[in-house]
Write a structure and sequence with these properties.
The chain starts with a helix and ends with a strand. With 101 residues, it is an alpha/beta fold. Helix 2 runs parallel beside helix 3. It is built from three helices and three strands.
Amino acid sequence: NPLDDEGAKALAEMLGGNGAESSGTVNTTLEHVDLSDCDIGPVGAQHLAQALRVNTSVKTLKLSDNSLGDEGAKALAEMLGGNGAESSGTVNTTLEHVDLS
């Protein structure tokens, strides 16, 4: 189902209330997010990564069969604490399974 980057942005706003800068509400009940084959690109992945920096309820994230590109993958890796000193901001410590295949 096509969601694309704009749909991913809307979902990210629901998941993370626009990240650390938001005064919005962060979803605290959704645990499994399957966005496989949803036409999400690098921009959508960046929005999701920012939201998941503050969301502590999501345990499973499936993004297989999307075109996340290098920038989207980098944003997700940094959200998970990757890239060592290059990582900036809060990292997610509650995700247990991430599928980017």
